[in-house]
From TrEMBL:
It is found in: Endomembrane system; Golgi apparatus membrane. This is Related to Bet1-like protein-Laccaria bicolor. Keywords: Golgi apparatus, Membrane, Protein transport, Transmembrane, Transmembrane helix, Transport. It comes from Serendipita indica (strain DSM 11827) (Root endophyte fungus). One of its GO terms (cellular component) is Golgi membrane.
Length: 153
């Protein structure tokens, strides 16, 4: 009888030990599941923010397109091309006047005056065309600033 009680006690202690191990694994799995859920929630918020940003950009772009169409609705294509070529030549002349200009590879080594004139040209272009360039204007100006900083080193 004592032997069967000892065996029952041994089996019961083994069951308790395995049950504790199972509880530990379940807690670990629950922690991993909670971490995955939190990560998915963060990614959903980030996707919503990105979607909102793209929606705002799309509406801004469509408004700019409508303004462009209104400004040049009756204008022929060649006239628009002349405007664009004139602006690009104006920028080229400004760089040639206020900075050293290499015509082979278009590498201007400019001063701040040339950068300021390019910025004024872009502002003038956006006001003449009655297009709200907004973020695109700032992006172009920032690219020009970075380009000039790299050339000055």
């Amino acid at each position: 009888m004592a032997s069967s009680q000892r065996d029952a006690y041994t089996y019961e202690s083994q069951n308790d030990q395995r049950l504790d191990e199972l509880h530990s694994k379940i807690r670990t799995l629950r922690g991993v599941t909670t971490d995955i859920h939190d990560d998915v929630e963060r990614q959903n918020l980030m996707l919503d923010d990105t979607s909102n940003s793209f929606t705002a950009f799309a509406s801004s772009l469509s408004q700019s397109t409508r303004n462009f169409t209104r400004a040049f609705g009756g204008t022929k294509t060649w006239r628009i091309m002349l405007y664009v070529c004139g602006v690009l030549n104006g920028i080229r002349l400004q760089l040639a006047c206020y900075g050293s200009y290499n015509t082979t590879f278009f590498t201007p080594y400019s001063s701040h005056a040339a950068l300021h004139l390019v910025e004024l040209t872009l502002t003038y272009l956006s006001s003449v065309l009655r297009i709200q360039l907004g973020d695109l204007h700032n992006l172009i100006v920032n690219i020009i600033h970075i380009y000039w900083r790299k050339l000055s080193y």
